[in-house]
Amino acid sequence: MKKVFKKISIFFILIILSILLIYVSDIDNLPDSIIIFEGETLKLNTIFGVNIETEETSNPNIEKIDNYETITVSAEAQNTQELDCTGTINLSVKVLGKKVKEISVNVIEDVEVVPIGDLIGVKLYTNGVLVVGMSEISGTDSNKYKPYEGSGIEEGDVIVEINENEITGTYELTKQINKSQGSDMAVTYIRDGKILNTTMKAIKANDNTYKIGLWVRDAAAGVGTATFYEPKSKKFASLGHGIVDADTEELIDIASGEVVTADILSIIKGEDGEPGKIQGSIEGQPTIGTIYKNTPYGIYGHLNNISALFIDKNNLMEVALRNEIQVGDATILSTLENGKTKEYDVRIEKIYLNNNIDNKSMVIRVTDEELLNLTGGIVQGMSGSPIIQNGKLVRGFNSCNCE
Predict the structure, then answer these.
(1) Which residue from 77, 254, 277, 337 lies 20 to 30 Å from 155 (Cα-Cα)?
(2) Helix (H, G, I), strand (E, B) or coil at 369
(3) Do 184 and 178 meet the contact criterion of CB atoms below 8 Å apart?
(4) What mean pLDDT is reported for the chain?
């Protein structure tokens, strides 16, 4: 009897744990922040018992949001409320009346933009230095040391201070390490947005310099495609995805960045299992703008010299809302030859209207024979190529899965 009771107890415990896991996963999959256009429909799906309610808006100019006072979303009902005023709306995710998460919804003005499609070069400079590797140090006594051991620092962390001195790059880091002369150093670093502190002692190496055994980087560079330009603000968006570090695969937290022109050197055609790429050069190219944000959805900045790109300010078009995008034919703008931006045919195969979590909101297929002959499909460097359908910008590549 006791064995039967024990089995039943274990069975019910497993059921309860499974239900808790389902709820935790559902809540965790809800995004922390959402950006939508004025008039766009917001859809959030949750399971039974998880409620989403509006809080006070953080924009004092918003007194009331029509039809959006309280939202209750369950397995049987899906929220399809339309937001028709700009500003920030905070949503509370609640379970059994208790707040477990907050979602910030930024409703932005529906503006007209100019699609670009030009290849550009980007240079990013980090806040502090990014740890990308670790290695042993040979001391002056010929012994091997790992100064970072026990410090808690890992690959992907960003060192921002040593002994309360700001670390702005690799030069400043080396300077502060040598200045310590092997004494204890107070190190401040950032991991997942949290500021952490530790201590470390540098080792005098065979070349009579002090080292801590960390490989670091303070900049990244590459080429991609500019998506659109907004003439009034001179802002632009590019890539359609964020720039991640090649070693840590983490989104790079930037302090600043530059936009430069780029020259196409060659195009490596993509094949089955092998993505192609545009090989470009940014060496010695003039700076035409600045970058202020690197996000999972792309990089954003200001263009100061649009004459260096093929931007026709008269070619303004609206940005399509999600519910305006249709399965069917569309085109993309891309530069595959220096000095020439062309429009190529594609087809939107699937649309994920409910996806507010990442930047994969559609599946497209390349149908243009010329593009297929040149590249074999979508290749590295074309990320950000603007998609156009029915005279509206549907946003850029890598807001989609491409075939």
Answers:
(1) 277
(2) helix
(3) no
(4) 81
Rounded to the nearest 5 degrees, what angle is found at the Cα of 325, between the Cα atoms of 319 and 330? 90
Q: What is the pTM of this model?
A: 0.67
The 8-class DSSP code of residue 251 comes to: B
**Burial class of residue 325 (count of CB atoms within 10 Å of its CB; 0-12, 13-18, 19+):** buried
pLDDT, tens digit, 9 for 90 and up, residues 195-224: 999 999 999 998 889 999 999 988 888 888
pLDDT > 70: percent of the chain:
82
The amino acid at 163: N
Ordered structural domains, the chain, with CATH:
2-108 (2.60.40), 112-123+218-308 (no CATH), 136-212 (2.30.42.10), 317-402 (2.40.10)
Closest C-alpha to 82, from 98, 95, 65: 65
Alpha-carbon distance of 3 to 214, in angstroms, equals 56
Residue 296's closest CA among 255, 251, 258, 360? 251
Band of pLDDT at residue 296, cut at 50, 70 and 90 = confident
Selection from 205, 190, 208 nearest residue 147 by Cα: 205
Residues 79 and 105: beta-carbon distance below 8 Å: no
Catalytic residues: 241, 368, 383
- What is the CB neighbour count within 10 angstroms for residue 250? 17
Q: What percent of the chain has pLDDT over 90?
A: 34
